[in-house]
Amino acid sequence: MPKSKRNRPVTLSKTKKKPGLERKGKVVADIKDAVEHYANAYVFTYDNMRNQKLKDLREQLKASSRIFLAGKKVMQIALGRSPADEANTGLHKLSKFLQGDAGLFFTNLPRDDVERLFREFEEHDFARTGSIATETVELKEGPLEQFTHEMEPFLRKQGLPVRLNKGAVELVADHVVCEEGKPISPEAAQTLRLLGMQMATFRLYLVCRWSPDDFEIYKEGLAHLRADEADVSS
User: Where is the Large ribosomal subunit protein uL10-like insertion domain (predicted)?
Assistant: First the structure.
């Protein structure tokens, strides 16, 4: 006899909140707390983000500042998108600049110190697949003395025309690893790393600054943010 569909057990326990919603709620709360504890807030953008290097910067500045990189809508909600819902007077002005690769920087440091910090911050690293080569790298025919014979099969997989000659790795023809202004392939990224060539630079750019009695836009950072937006949409 088929089971009745009328008398099904109903679970009365509460549905657990999704972890993602909890994280977003915490970010909103943390940003609102930062508004209360820091004198100035900045929107910034960046090139070639490196998480570990950003973590090091956070540690360096933890006594005076706090950095947020989260979903743009989450940060906008925390700040407020209009005068009616902003967390502090004028804060909604920051929200419209939270687009593309942008984050929030709250600090008690003087403006001059912040501007110098962002202007001078520069961390070099190896380029990743898809990033744009800053120079042309060409290997000339002949022995590659920096590589051991065990690496010959791996180098061939990266597209290098190599062979073993009396136990030494030898390039049998000139080979262009990457060309300036063009995207770096996965093989080129691996080869550049093997060659020790760091072609990526992690940089930060200020876009705008808010304080309770002032608001300022940085033209260079704004232009950089808009350029990144154009790259994404193209």
Answer: 127-196
What does DSSP assign to residue 183?
Answer: B
CATH topology of domain 23-125+200-233: Alpha-Beta Plaits (3.30.70)
> Where does the chain hold its CATH 3.90.105.20 domain(s)?
137-195
pTM of the model: 0.79
At 23 the pLDDT is 84
For 161-179, the pLDDT digits (tens) are 999 998 899 999 999 999 9
CA distance 160 to 137: 13
Domain 137-195: homologous superfamily in CATH: Ribosomal protein L10, N-terminal fragment, domain II (3.90.105.20)
Give the three-class secondary structure for 99.
coil
Angle between helices 19-37 and 72-79 (to 10 degrees): 40
Cα 22 to Cα 19: distance, rounded to the nearest angstrom: 5
Residues 6+ apart with CB under 8 A from 107: 38, 39, 40, 41, 42, 61, 64, 65, 66, 114
Distances, alpha carbon 26 to alpha carbons 29, 41, 70, 89, 209, in Å? 5, 19, 11, 22, 24
Cα separation, 209 vs 114, in Å, equals 10
Residue pLDDT, tens place only, 74-112: 999 999 999 998 888 999 999 999 998 999 999 999 999
Tokens encoding 128: 């990743």
